[in-house]
Write a structure and sequence with these properties.
260 residues, alpha+beta, five-stranded antiparallel β-sheet, 4 helices, globular, AsaB-like, Methyltransferase, oxidoreductase activity
Amino acid sequence: MRFIPPGDFPRKNLQITKHDGVHVDDVRGHEDALSFEKNGFFLMKLDELMQIEDFDRMDLITSVYLPQVAECLKKRLGASRVQVHDYLVRKSHSTFPISTGKPYKWEQPATLLHIVPESTLLDSTPEGTRQIVQDLNKDGSSLVKMRYQYVTVWKPIRGPVTRWPLMMGDTSTVDADHDLEARDMVYYGNVVDTHLVYKSEAHRFMYLSDQQSSEAWVMLQSDSSGLTGTPHTAFPNPTASDADPGRESIEVRTLVYYNE
């Protein structure tokens, strides 16, 4: 539950297990080998049109950054149209990952392997994404008849990232029928589904060392043609120093349409 229920009613009915010693490959130098079809994600270069402090301003994000992301995605993927659903800025607190027990000004990095984070109201299941496509196009748009993908674009606001970088799960090593578990996130007046991931020795994980603010992860979350979404999470980089800057990032959730 994404709220405090009354009485002693539990907020969750699942148990999360911590796994240490997970190997994560560095893709630096091999970025061009990644693709949606093979891995579920790839890296995309973005011109830096905004300063670091500009990402504190909603007006600049919506007028400059979001249109840039939509246009770059459209060109890179050969899409007919890209609809931006929402975005999220994260800035790790100085005590992260230790909780202060108080509300944060900014969302914190996610440390749970997932497909679509808890901080979104966008349902990552195929059925949920289909409903969102219909809700966004109630005007009778032909987009509802096209092939579509739910795609997230994630990049650092401040680079290079050393502390708590993002790691991606190679979807070619994920068995969607056995490794993924849909779970309900219950809000006041709304319920959405996202996916958690069971550990498997077959899984392969990747990250980009010293990721710069011009380097964006583009990850698949859901696909009307049946491709598996990309598990991902922040992870503690053993080579990072406590003196390194905390992680600051922005992620943009989009719906991408293809005229096929």
